[in-house]
Amino acid sequence: MTFELAKTLYERMENAVPQARSRFGRPLTLTDKILVSHADDFMAQEWERGKAMLVLRPDRVAMQDATAQMALLQFMQSGRKRVALPSSIHCDHLIQGRDGAAKDLPRGLEENREVFAFLSSAGRKYGIGFWRPGAGIIHQVVLENYAFPGGLMIGTDSHTPNSGGLGFMGVGVGGADAGEVMAGLAWEVLHPKLIGVRLTGKLSGWASAKDVILKLCGLLTVKGGTNKIVEYFGEGVESLSCTGKATICNMGAELGATSSIFPFDSKMADYLRGTGREDLADLAAANRALLVADPEVLREPSRCFDELVEINLSSLEPQVVGPHTPDLARPVSAMAAEAQEKGYPVELRAALIGSCTNSSYEDLSRAASLARQALAAGVKPKVPLFISPGSERVYRTIARDGFLELFQTMGATVLTNACGPCIGQWHRSDAVPGRADSIISTFNRNFPGRNDGVMETHSFLAGPEVVMAYAFAGSLAIDPVHGELEGGFRFSPPQGDELPPQGFAGGDEGYSAPAENGDQITVDVAPDSERLSLLSPFPKWDGRDFERLPLLVKTKGKTTTDHISPAGKWLRFRGHLDRISDNMFLGAVNAFTGEAGKGSNVETGETGLSFARIARQYKAKGLSCAVVGDENYGEGSSREHAAMSPRHLGVTVVIVRGFARIHETNLKKQGILPLVFADPADWEKVQATDRISVVGLAGLAPGKPVEVRLHKADGRIESIQTRHSMTEKQIQWFRAGSALNAVGAR
Ligand code: MIC
Ligand code: SF4
Fold it and tell me: How far apart are CA 451 and CA 459, in angstroms?
């Protein structure tokens, strides 16, 4: 099926690409080529970067189990019998890592039986491929099975761009977007600007693909990629394996980028062949010119990119980032001094290798090469090590090739092929709330509380080689790359194979195909379920201005979706809006008290309440409320619960210094008014007891500022200006109460 999809796409590109070249009057980047050939209507489309809304037709939809529930519940409201395009569900987020796969997987199956039954029955009925729990992490499975150069996919997970490693543009979206596209609607996204990253030189020694993106995170920061696509080019590109490229694209999500992409090359062809898709490799090779930027772009990149960055792979040093944010980067050689200076706890309590970012065969083989060296020299690991393979295919292959045995010899716990600790599905036996200690992983995110639920844990991120080396060093005070370990042992640089020399091991990979005709299949939702509940539409806007709303919370500093709607134990309730809403803002820092997760009911004066409780109290009195946030509000994940819970509990407006892309769209989709302070300094003016009015809503129009009035406790009224980025259509969503209501209303 993928071959056919690719073939039709390349035929379409044959026309679309020259047409776009002449319309734009310049050579095309790869991103341009992909976007123009997926336009719903190329001629009617406006093509201004940073301004126009693109209306696109993706080739696929991918969903992971934690977000698929809401995506499917929303799709089901459309009344369609079958999805309009190839789609898949991947069960990876709900399995807890604890004792190792042999015990964890059966336990996870039992604990989540209801949810998996719902997802698999919905998959069978609506024509969606279903990957069973343990089959692997969504992005690895997509890379191995579905990605093809030049294609476009949306996925209900922010790391969907991982597939850009195979030239397949992936974009993370909320479940509402996925639900609508599966129902046959086109997909809309703000036309991203383009960052060109020129890679020169060649990786060698310790440096790996992970270091390229960690370095870039340090350079561009977590908001540097908002509403932008990162396209890589230059001679360094060819030296990176396909899965290494995927690592880089994966973590483009940490820049807030809409997507990241690499041009088609021989490494991609090798990977396609290695994963049994020889036909696609040949087809892509025959269409190479469509799947790379025009040669003139490489000669004159400033004509075609909005921003340019250059990274020399030859001089790249391995990086370590963290704690608490992925953009706090430094070379590994600077870690020890910085840890001391900043007072980070230096003793490492856990080392974790895996996640969608770093769980390829190459990653594990390079980590294994270091483990082998140390064990041979009699050096023992100092820190508990956890390994999460990315997919069943990778798992079987490392089992066959002896890495698994090696990891087990050193006492590692091999977890299910799933997200596990990366998303807080981790029973960390030695975690103590309130105690700060340090862990290091190959993951992509390290927001407070993410892995073990303890806000104080200092989570550092690095490549698989560096994490393995630290597992033997045991301390951030040692530089395991350049320095000596106990007994004078020094590692030699790691070595590994990009692809398994004997090919991937075969066998059942955990896929179930949908039914040919799903009419007779019923979707499993128990009426008394505490895990799933069917959705009822949000109320439509009553046509009136928002008058004197109480302020539910003003957040200070980082407010990621992990702060707004934590995962971990709450993943349980991802299909049950009312239950999950009790987690609302549990991680958000109250700007007035500095405390996380608690605030006051301004009506009753009661303090120390959870924000969900306060919102429920207001709601019971018929009051809506407002939220005020800081910079890059909603960064991190695609989880729309961070928009749905506030909406469910009565938040009607969110006013911030700046939004992250996916979250802003999620708010719009769910009918919440997302406003941005015209003057970021006005954030300071908002006080705990202010009542907030938003006026002139009947005249809401694209590009038109919105007036917000702060009614002060002493009776003064302060007026401030805000802006919004809603298009005419998105304003309809607001009026209808949600995007889904607006679709229904047509
Ligand atoms: C994440 O890495 O934060 C997640 C869990 O994969 C999320 C999706 C979710 O919250 O379910 C993401 O990245 O979008
Ligand atoms: Fe899963 Fe972690 Fe990847 Fe998210 S970032 S998809 S939780 S492995």
Answer: 8
pLDDT in tens, 387-410: 999 999 999 999 999 999 999 999
Three-class SS of residue 380?
A: coil
**Test site for ligand 2: of 64, 162, 356, 386, most ligand atoms within 8 A of the Cβ:** 356
Question: Which residue(s) pair with 229 in the sheet?
Answer: 194, 259
Tokens of 612: 């969900």
Do residues 612 and 632 lie in contact, with contact meaning Cβ atoms separated by under 8 Å?
no
What ligand 1 atom has the least distance to the C-alpha of 172?
14
Pick from 64, 451, 641 the residue to mutate for probing ligand 1's pocket: most ligand atoms within 8 Å of its CB: 64
- What pLDDT, in 10s, does the model give residues 514-567? 999 999 999 988 888 889 988 888 999 999 999 999 999 999 999 999 999 999
629 has which bridge partners?
Answer: 656
Ligand nearest to the CA of 250: 2
321 DSSP β-pair partners:
329, 461
Minimal CA–CA distance to 323: which of 191, 184, 153, 457?
457
Whether residue 746 has pLDDT greater than 50: no
Helix, strand, or coil (residue 618): helix
Is the predicted pLDDT of residue 80 greater than 70, yes or no? Answer: yes
Facing residues of 628 across strands? 554, 655
Q: Mean pLDDT over residues 584-605, rounded?
A: 97
- Catalogue the active-site residues: 92-93, 157, 445, 637, 639
The C-alpha atoms of residue 56 and residue 85 are separated, in whole angstroms, by: 13
Model confidence at 745: pLDDT above 60: no
Query: Is the pLDDT at 674 greater than 90, yes or no?
Result: yes
pLDDT band of residue 712 (cuts 50, 70, 90) is very high
pLDDT at 470 over 50: yes
Find residue 695's DSSP bridge partners: 707
